[in-house]
Hints:
The protein is an alpha+beta fold.
Amino acid sequence: MQNILDILPSDKCCGCGACINACPTQALSFSQDDFGFIRPQIDNGKCIECGKCIRTCPQYNEIETSKPRRVLAALNKNDSVVVKSSSGGIFYALAESVISEGGSAFGATLDDQFKVKHICVERIEDLPLLQKSKYVQSYTGDCYKLALQKLKEGMMVLFSGTPCQVAAMKSIAGDKYAGSLFLVDVVCHGVPSQTFWSDYLMTLSKKVGSLKEYIFCYKRKARNGMNKYASFTGKKCKKFVKNWPQDSYNCFFMEAINYQEVCYSCKFARPERFSDLTICDYWHWDAYHKNDFPSCSTLSGICVNTDAGKMILDKIADKLTLVESSFDNLAAHNGCLLRPTPKPAGREELLQEWKSKGYEFIDQKFEKKNRLRILKNRLQMYVPEGFKLWFYRLRHGN
Ligand SMILES: Cc1cc2nc3c(=O)[nH]c(=O)nc-3n(C[C@H](O)[C@H](O)[C@H](O)COP(=O)(O)OP(=O)(O)OC[C@H]3O[C@@H](n4cnc5c(N)ncnc54)[C@H](O)[C@@H]3O)c2cc1C
Ligand code: SF4
Ligand code: SF4
Ligand code: SF4
C-alpha cells in the first residue's frame, strides 16, 4: 500500500489538508512547496500504510456532484452586513442561522499576524472574523477533524471555503451527517500562497510603516454600483484606499498570474457542484434584475445544489431579498462556474523573479511598467462619485 504522496504529484495538490487530517498516525504534516503553497509532507517512519490519505484526497478521488436546481440573485436585507461582506452578505446569514441553533461555522479569517487560516466560530458576535474574501490560500490546520468531532457530538456544522476545501470536508465526513452538515463553497478562480502575500505585506510595511489593518474588499458606493478596493492602515499612514490596478498584489491576483499550479486546471470549476450551496458575486446583475434591487448593490448569486442547501436557504429566506435567476445569466460573467482560470503567460517568470530577487523587486517593476495606468486610476478616485454618476447617465441616456 502506498500513501498519497506516492500517487499525487505536488503540482496536482491543492493544499486542502484533508490527507493530513485523515492520517491516524500523524505521519503527514503541513509543509510548503518552493513557492510557499501548502503541501503535505510525510514522516515515513510513522506511516502504517493504511491508505486513508489516498481515500480522502479530493484531488485524487471522484467526489459526488449535483447540478444547481435553482439559481437566485440575492442580497442581505441588513445593509451593515452587506458593507462588511465582499458580496451580498449571504454567508453571514447562513452562519448566523446555524450558530443561533447552537451550531458552529467554519471559514477563513485574517488573523492579527495577517495570516489567512480556517477557524471555527460559535458566537454571532465573532462572525465578522469570517466575513469578506481574503485572496490568499487559507491554512486549514485541523479544522476538518474538529468539524467531524462536532458532528459526532450531534452538533450542526456549516463548513465554508473554496470548492476544493469544501470537497475535502465532504470527503472526510462522507454522507453520514445529512441534516447536520451544510457545505457552502465560494466560487473561486485561484489562490496565491501565504508566502507571496507575507512578502507583499513586508514590502508594503516598508512604505507605510508596520501594518495595523488590511481589508481586501473595502466597499465604496460608485456610479454603477458599489466598487471594491484594497484598504490598509500603517503606522506611518492613515487608512489608504487603493483600486486594484494601482497595487501589485491585487493586480497580480486579478490577472491570475500568481495562483498555485492546480488552480489552472481546477476540477471544481464547473457547473456541477460539490456543495449544498454555492455562493458568488453576481457580476452585471443589473442586466437581468435592474428593477429588483437598489442600484448601488453588490449582489450575490446562489446556486442551490441539494436538499440540504434548500433546507438551510429556506431558514434564512426572510433575511434576504431573493429573486429567481438562471445559471446561464450568472455564469455569463463568472467564468469559474464553467471552467478553470486560464494560465497567463509569464506566471513562472513572475514567481521565479520573486523567489530570486524578492517582492520589492517585482513591486518596483510593476510600478514602473504601469506608471501611467496607476496615475490615471489614482486621479479617477478623486473625481466625486456624484459627477461620475451624472456623466455615466449622460452617456448611457438614463
Ligand atoms: C480566493 C477567492 C477567490 C474568489 N473568486 C471568485 C470568483 O472568481 N467569482 C466569484 O463570484 N466569487 C469569487 N469569490 C467569492 C466572493 O468574493 C465572495 O466571497 C462570495 O460571493 C461570498 O460573499 P458573501 O458576501 O456572501 O460573504 P463574505 O463575507 O464576503 O465571504 C465570507 C466567505 O468567504 C470565505 N473565504 C474568505 N476568504 C477565503 C479564503 N482565502 N479561502 C477560503 N474561503 C474564504 C469564508 O470562509 C466565508 O465563507 C472568491 C473568494 C475567494 C476567497
Ligand atoms: S497511508 Fe495511512 S498512515 Fe500512511 S500517511 Fe497515509 S493515512 Fe497516514
Ligand atoms: S488531500 Fe489535499 S493536501 Fe492532501 S494530497 Fe490531496 S489535495 Fe493535497
Ligand atoms: S481554483 Fe480550484 S484548486 Fe484552486 S483554490 Fe480554488 S477551488 Fe481550490
